[in-house]
Amino acid sequence: MGTFYSRCLQIGPARFRIASAWRQPLDLLNALYQDYPSLDPGLVDYTVRLEPQKWWRKYIRPSVHISGDYWLPDAAPLPLDQSLLAAEMGMNLQMALGWRRHLLLHASTVEKDGKALLMTGLSGSGKSTLSAMLGEQGWRFMGDEFALLCPATGMIHPFPRLISLKNEAIAAMQDMVPDDRFGPLMMGTPKGDIRHCIPQKSAIEAMAQPARPALLLFPRYGYEADVRAMGKSEVFVRLTQASTNYVALGEAGFRALTQFVDTVPTRAMDYRSGKEAVEQIDALWSGAQ
Amino acid sequence: MTPASKRDAAVLVTALRDPESALALTDAEWTELISIARAESLIGTLAHQLINLKLPDQARLILHDAIDAGKWARKQALWEADCARRALADIDCKIVLMKGTAYVAAGLDAGKGRSIGDLDIMVARRHLPAVEEALLDAGWEWVKPDPYDDQYYRDYMHELPPLIHKERDRMIDVHHTILPLTARPKPDAQAMIDDAARLDSGLYIMAPADMVLHSIAHLFADGDLAGGLRNLWDINCLIRQFADADDGFWLALDRRAKTHGLDQELGRALRLADRLYGTPVDAKIAGPAAIGDGVYVKRLLARDGFGRETCYWLRQVFYIRSHWLRMPPFMLAKHLWTKWRKGGAGPR
Question: Best residue in B31, B72, B168 to probe A by mutation, most A CBs within 10 Å?
Fold first, then answer.
């Protein structure tokens, strides 16, 4: 067994130990997560492991295999210069497969006036980018990957990890956010070009504060501006598909989700630019209040 | 940048055996214990052992989740067993539940918090064709499309090639005995089926001695001991419960082990269960400590505080041993050659 470096960090209610055969991903995490609560050495929920697939791949064409307490048998390894992405994917994997304290919705969330706006949809819908933009325009960023719905209270809990910007979204956010809040640019990852962005300090400091869900949007990028109502049954089914642990939570998950669908107004929203989307969201938000 | 303080899985064994010892753990040690327990599929079991103690809040949350997950696993396993029961209702044969599903169906201590993956059932060999057909009719499909693997299972194994249900995505293993046909011990499968006990559901479980011996055969005469701590925990729980309930259990176990040709494996299992989990065992049946026992212990504990497998070469040795046990030498050579050419051989 080779040397293993590790550090613990907390994001929202979840605590992780990231253990790695290389220093690089941990140096990056130390820099990018420095405003997050430190709990080394802590009692954590999950261990993420970043290891070479074969021992010599630690040195020769280093390749990072992602595993941990929860793992997938067919996870493809990443090159070492994408190790930060590997760490993020490792943490997401633990949440997706292991988390049971909330219903996990694959959605981005922002908050204003104590109320939460959720955005969900397929990859490429722009939900992550929109949450990042709103987070710089007076909203509190709560998360770009998972919204944590509490089955007992119906509240949404933040999971404000680094924002994972992809492709064109990188340039768009570089216009709004100072350079020192960005991680390295990773070109040609399996998900395209990726650059991580640190949420605003106030969003990190408020990561224990939940918010009542007030509006759910299904954004769609690249279509003429439009807002449509959606049937509850369609919303329900799409959210079961957007949840990684709906089945594992059993009856508690069913109750949480039906209550959410019954009480939270929902719209499908098409847009062609970030500016257009923000205008539509402002209008919908004042209507929903 | 902290190195793991735990170089093997002893912390897990200690916590299972003596739950109060966990109260002295530091935060970092808790993290290691939890990683090891998850890797060994013993987190639910650990949770049941510890949950009533005065635990750190964060540990309580994690163990509470594990208990919830275990309840769900139990429900899912029983549902899957019932699906199989309904699919096979028209066939006049005993369906014997095995391993985890049997433990939860019978409400045994070994089932508490146990993770359950596949559904394992056993039927008499003469019923295999009818069972296979009925399962295919009811929506199960072949997992291994490889003709070599398929034929290998049918000729030499103790079970059908695995089937998976196309809608529920759950696997079923249909056994007709408990060890590969090429293994040296030849268990008496018909005796196991004859003595199986009927549950209210109409499904069967093995008689106590057979249930223990199946678990032992699985651990010591078949696999490479990966995940063996859980298997040995099953054995520990079964023995404690059966020996408490019936004074004649040890005698029955001893006799039955000879019937199945598993007396050496039984001795080994008792010594290791005693050594690791403090299982009260019959000293005469367990026999004197053997030199090899320490090697088995080392293999069973081969996991560090990050949840990584350790002792690479020792694991290789046990992997090769698992094949050696399963097959005569010439057949093993032929099998490994075929698998190697397909690029598949080697431990996980």
Answer: B31
Q: Is B307 on the interface with A (CB under 8 A)?
A: yes
Q: Do B38 and A40 touch (CB under 8 A)?
A: no
Q: How large is the ipTM?
A: 0.94
Subunit contact B72:A248, Cβ cutoff 8 A: yes
- Strand A266-271 and strand A226-229: the pairing is antiparallel
Of B33, B65, B308, B312, which to mutate for an interface test with A (greatest number of A Cβ within 10 Å)?
Answer: B308
- Indicate the pairing of strand A140-143 with strand A103-112: antiparallel
**B33 close to A (CB below 8 A):** no
* pLDDT band per the 50, 70, 90 thresholds, residue B348: very low
Q: Do B306 and A100 make contact, defined as CB atoms within 8 angstroms? A: no
Residue A26, chain B, CB below 8 Å: the answer is yes
Model-level pTM?
Answer: 0.93
Q: Encode pLDDT of A70-96 as tens digits.
A: 999 888 899 999 999 999 999 999 999
Residue A230's Cβ-side half-sphere holds a number of Cα atoms within 13 Å equal to: 23
Over residues B45-56, the pLDDT tens digits come to: 999 999 999 999
Amino acid at A214: A
Q: For residue B343, give both structure tokens.
A: 């690029």
Q: Are B250 and B282 in contact (CB under 8 A)?
A: yes
Contact A49, B307 (CB under 8 A): yes
Question: Residue B66 and residue B37: Cα distance in Å, rounded?
Answer: 11
End-to-end CA distance of chain A: 57
Both tokens of residue B249? 């259990």
Please answer whether residues A127 and A117 qualify as being in contact, where contact means their C-beta atoms are separated by less than 8 angstroms.
no
Q: Which two tokens stand for residue A234?
A: 């369609």
- Interface membership of A209 toward B (CB under 8 Å): no
B73 reaches A (C-beta below 8 A): no
Rounded to a whole number of angstroms, the distance from the CA of A122 to the nearest CA of chain B is 23
pLDDT in tens, A147-194: 999 999 999 999 999 999 999 999 999 999 999 999 999 999 998 999
What are the tens digits of pLDDT across the range A102-125?
Answer: 999 999 999 999 999 999 998 888
Residues in chain A: 289
Strand ranges (DSSP E) for chain B?
Answer: 96-97, 119-122, 140-142, 163-165, 171-175, 197-198, 204-205
